[in-house]
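Shift notes (night). Ran Fe2OG dioxygenase domain-containing protein while the centrifuge was going.
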Amino acid sequence: MGLETEFPSEFQTPAAPPTVYVDEKEQPWDVKQGGELKVPESFVWPDAMQPKVAFNEYVDVPLIDLAPCHTGDEIGIQKVVKEVDAACREWGAFQVINHGIPDDVVLRAREAMKRVFHLPPEIKLKAQRDYIKNYNGFGAGSMLCPSKQWSEAFQFLMTDEAAPAVIDDYGERLFGDDKEFFCNAIKEYLIGNDKVRLLIWDLVIKGLKVKNDSFFKKYLSGSVNKGFRSNYYPPCPDPSKVVGLVVHTDSTLGLVQLGDVGGYQLMKDGVWMSVNPRKGENTLCINIGDYIEVMSNNQYKSVIHRVVTNTEEERISIDCVAQPPWDFPLSTCPELIDEDHPQIYKPIIGKEYQAVKLEGHVCRPQKFFTVAGDAHLELRHAAGNVFSSTSDPSVVAARA
Ligand SMILES: [Fe+2]
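Came back to this:
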């Protein structure tokens, strides 16, 4: 087995430029014009895609206390299942407390990533993203976006077997002999996330009232690829002109550590809203993702989201995901298809899905694989993507 999980050959041409920032001597957020920090012209987005809702115009998404799941309180668990079910249907996202990852593990992971993002560019270059092999390392906030975003990201995708070596390798490149803090913090955090992911997955199965749970469980068994991704959003002199992270949906169930600073926005009923990060509380934001939307026959929704910036505080997030190998078939649970609930999506394989996403269709790309749309390939090209002119209603809504 190789050291890291390699992308299939179809993904060897990156949609994004090779690097955005780490090869520049002066990072864009430090650029001064006339003695003042200014947004470089190349980072200004078209007006239609500029954020109109401030980072701190907060709404509370459903907050679910997972404590009963750890104590075995059956009545409490049933309440949690109902809350998760309602949140997945209405929002496609929710926050959880008492998820089981200890405060000190979260704090160490956040401190580790803070140290990483404050390394000088010449050190970050040693861990520059490998766009040919696997997309691991430092690079643009979203690798699916050809335009410049006010962020940078550090990420790796790996199997459990490869994880210790991958993390040690990046620790060595970034911190040399001082790598221990970084390596231990990330390894501990990943272990904590694995437990929460399985717990949420179980709640999803219960919420959907699936009797034969093997359909869902096979997605997280076998040679699963685990993703660790941390994004850094520096303060921005003019947040109204830039995009922190481009609008998108997540492919698979995501466990997002939002930190204490706002900026994470989701779209509900066509309206953008900033998620309250619940400062000081040890919360995780759970995104259901595209795969579960397909598996649930569209009962659970994949939430459209993005990140905006602010003028004062830097923001760091950490997102952990897991997904089956690229050749794994993505399909709808047979139990959730009947006369009243006809199958919405055609079965596809993971790499076909990812290929559409890499074309720039980063919001719910499964809509191009509907059973009703026989000419789905033509549809997918006609609809355009979030980066080009389109009349596709959901994309237009995503831009609003
Ligand atoms: Fe996301």
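The two ends are 45 Å apart (CA to CA). Confidence is low (pLDDT under 50) at residues 1-20, 374-384, 388-400.
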